[in-house]
Amino acid sequence: MGYLCGESFDFPLILFLEVPHISKQEHLINEEITVAQVRLVGEDGEQLGIVPIDEAQNLSIDKGLDLVMIAPKAEPPVCRIMDYGKFRFEQEKREKEAKKKQQVVEVKEIQLSCNIGEHDFQTKLNHAFRFLKEGNKVKVCVRFKGREMRHTELGMDIVMRFAEAASEYAQIDKKPVLEGRNLTLFLAPVKQ
User: 67: domain range?
Assistant: First the structure.
């Protein structure tokens, strides 16, 4: 039951509060800066000293540029006179270049069995070569079925034979590990 201005209601009273909009902008610019004084840096990097915020904003307006707070935690905060649009453009350009240089490494899986034939072994090895040349890691997995669990050494022999055959393009990233019914080995591409 809810109450409002002395009247009672049979339903709960729900209030909606407006949440202030939070901008994704990482720097405060121009009128958003509300501190009393700032350490001012000119557009070409020269130190202009500690000045009142009004004076700093007037200087930026006179030059037709923006006043940007670049170090809010400093005492007093550091502001710079610059073209903020150009600054953001160059920053985004640098971030895109950094993303281009990043290489995403995937882990490709190759499954073998204890009684794999020679031709199948070579086919799986060729797949591994292709994955490694692309810069991906390879997870080599031998799954033991039924009574094969008694002879895990056969799986270990096959996995090590595979790693040795792939040694031209790969190095062992993680030693073979038996987890349940699976024996896994990780291979990483050799740095050229």
Answer: 30-87
